[in-house]
UniProtKB/TrEMBL annotation:
Protein name: Uncharacterized protein
Segments traversing the membrane: 12-31, 43-61, 108-127, 172-191
Keywords assigned: Membrane, Transmembrane, Transmembrane helix
Domain of life from the UniProt record: Bacteria
Species, as recorded: Candidatus Amesbacteria bacterium RIFCSPLOWO2_01_FULL_47_33
Length: 194
């Protein structure tokens, strides 16, 4: 059993920024290697932690569906089926049910703009001041994945379910533009550090 790539474009959306950041960080490290105090192992270790964190952040987005299925209405058929499979410890079938029924879940705790606004603030803070490549990778992996989903999602209104009013397509594009600029700023911060 191996990992199958469902959608090559999605993989490019997710892995492309990570690979670019890692490449720039390696080139910058190589360019400064003439410094007598420079040491390769911390650079390589930092990049490895960044990549691991990015992968963890990517999969953290799936917590949405798990949370929804375990904490939702007991009369909901999908929730009932997932809970039954988990009680039988049949994780693969439970995950398969969650994958097949992703489209029917609209009010998700992670996939909404309020969570995104909070994550963007946390992301800038973590990337600029924490010094943890693992944490920076997790935040950036999660934000890049959610950004790629929000950009490609035709039903943009489901991202705003936590707000009391409807948002127009133009407002949505404005939020996506601001989100993209903050992501770009965070990626530049990641590329600058070793």
């Amino acid at each position: 059993m191996g990992v199958r790539i469902k959608n090559p474009k999605e993989t490019l959306w997710i892995a492309g920024p990570l690979l670019f950041v890692l490449l720039v960080r390696m080139v910058r490290a190589y360019a400064t290697r003439l410094n007598p105090a420079f040491n390769w192992p911390p650079v390589l270790l930092g990049n490895a932690f960044l990549a691991i964190g990015w992968g963890l952040g990517y999969f953290l987005a799936e917590a949405d569906h798990v949370f929804y299925a375990t904490m939702c209405d007991p009369q909901d058929e999908t929730c009932r089926l997932v809970k039954e499979e988990w009680e039988r410890k049949n994780w693969r079938n439970a995950w398969g049910i969650l994958e097949r029924t992703k489209g029917e879940r609209k009010r998700l705790p992670i996939r909404n703009m309020l969570t995104i606004f909070i994550l963007l603030g946390v992301g800038i803070w973590v990337v600029s001041s924490s010094g943890s490549m693992l944490a920076s990778g997790m935040v950036m992996g999660l934000l890049v994945r959610l950004f790629s989903e929000a950009v490609r999602d035709a039903e943009y209104k489901k991202w705003y379910w936590v707000f009391a009013r409807d948002f127009t397509p133009m407002e949505h594009r404005g939020f996506l533009t601001a989100w993209g600029l903050v992501l770009l700023f965070s990626l530049v911060l990641l590329m600058r550090g070793f």
